[in-house]
Amino acid sequence: METNPNNGDHRSPEDTPGTLTLIGAVSLGTGVMIGAGIFALTGQTARLAGDLFPVAFVAAAVVVSLSAYSYVKLSNAYPSSGGVAKFLHEAYGPGAATGVFAILMYVSMVISQSLVARTFGAYVLQIVDLKPVSLWVPVLAVGLLAVAFVVNVAGNRAIEISQRSMAAIKIIGLALFAVGGLWFASAGNFISDSTGAGIDTSPVGFLAAVALAILAYKGFTTITNSGGDIVDPHRNTGRAIMIALAVCTVVYLAIAAAVAGNLTLPEILAAEDFSLAEAARPAFGDFGVWFTVVLAIVATASGVMASIFAASRLLAMLTRMKQVPHWNFRMPGTVRAHTTVYTVAFAMALAATLDLSRIAALGAIYYLIMDIAIHWGLLTKLRTRIDFNPVIVVAAIVLDVVVLAAFVWVTASTDALSLCVAGAGIVLIIAGQRLLMRSHTRSDGTMDM
Fold first, then answer.
1. How many CB atoms lie within 10 A of CB 184?
2. What gap in Å lies between CA 186 and CA 174, rounded to an integer?
3. Distance (Å, whole) CA 190 – CA 232
4. 410 and 400 in contact (C-beta within 8 Å)?
5. Where are the domains of the chain?
6. Is 285 in a helix, a strand, or coil?
7. Tens of pLDDT along 240-283?
8. What residues are paired with 230 via a beta bridge?
9. pTM higher than 0.70
């Protein structure tokens, strides 16, 4: 199928080049990763990997580091506020393939927002006695999303200031938590029997835990959506990705080790949604719980803000590419303002209706499918336009396929409904894109895109 040769650059009219510094971009990435990672996923990863859950975070870092290679190469070549949407468009051209994979990424980003927002609610309830928990977790999650919306519509400067200040608080606070936790750690907890907690630590279960832990790092893709605003984007977008991943890998390993050293596996699973707060109790008592909860509130709030920033830009780029329809519902403002509203409303709906484990399962499946598509597009479609090492890209594809297959296998036996929901979502996205592309295709086979 031929495409319209006048499809343009797809640069966003709302882009403000040079308004986001390298440090600001790193803060965005770490904001999403630390918010969506160690606070939200420690307990769920331990449920799959048992006592090996700290190792699962390290293994996930290796997988993501290989994946990041493709994003760095693509970001250096095509810096844009559209990020993944721009990369897919360059690889697959306008059409259903670009739309399907980009929407999977968008949905996974919104899923992460709802996951982190519900984690915020779970931690707040450790110091505020509100009942019933089943009501107040989604209420607090929706409230956080509303505040994050206000910060995002205030503009890039408000985002950068909030992310810088929160990043400093998180990293310093988590470093103190890790040092204190490791100082008081019990060696016996590191080698407690997983079978005693009812956990079958098979190789497949461990690989499934790695797939889930990858969600803790996928926030680095947020940085790709800052290409239209960052200073010297051809250099700094890739540098920001590498710095953010390095910082988060060190933080995650230290925190996971501190949790494993202060709680037995049954205790971690009992406090699955707020395991860091519980891990602070043996060494620091109630003060440790309060300290950790405050850190969790800051981390999850910054994670939601940064994720909305990236997801709304991705959706705006898809709108300008005519990969998704757009209705303004008589709202004032720009396309990006409208996509921010849609993104937050979608996240609120998910946060109000799905539990943490089901949200995480959907996010892992959608993200890994999109990630494979990014690598495949670079390997097969862009090899004459971008200089890269194909061995690294092939390795990233193989690892993604292995951990995705393991995660699907384990989920099929423990929560088949999540797989059904994920499958139904993929079918709806494909069908919607096929119908939309027909509306853009002329009788001569060219596309109005």
1. 14
2. 19
3. 45
4. no
5. 22-438
6. helix
7. 999 999 988 988 888 888 888 888 888 888 888 788 888 888 87
8. 20
9. yes
